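Progress against Task 2.4 (sequence-to-structure conversion) is shown through the following example record, which the project officer requested during the mid-term review.
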Amino acid sequence: MVGSIQGASRSALEAMRRISTRVEAVDQLSRSIEDAVGRQTGTIAEISSNAKFVDEQAATITEVVTNSGMKLSEAATVIGGIRKPIEQIQAEVQSLEGASETLARLGGELGSMLQGMGVGQGR
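Structure tokens generated for the chain above:
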């Protein structure tokens, strides 16, 4: 009887160790997801700021061209001045796509881990 109690205690202890390991892994994934969301939020804010800047520049260019009777070549030079902000926005969009892919991958891993632990399966 004492042997069976000791065996059950060892089994329970081993199960608790496995659960603890899984909880640590879930915690690590949760922190990774949180970091990815933070980076994504920062990127979105920067894209928004740059988009606003480009919009303001486009409005200024339109106003200058309209009010000054500027020649087409002059307008092209002014428009060329906003190329860099547009390229920055494109780079930030690519960064955001990468962060989104990372976030989706981490979310999938977390879901798989939780499913492997039986979380949300009515256990």
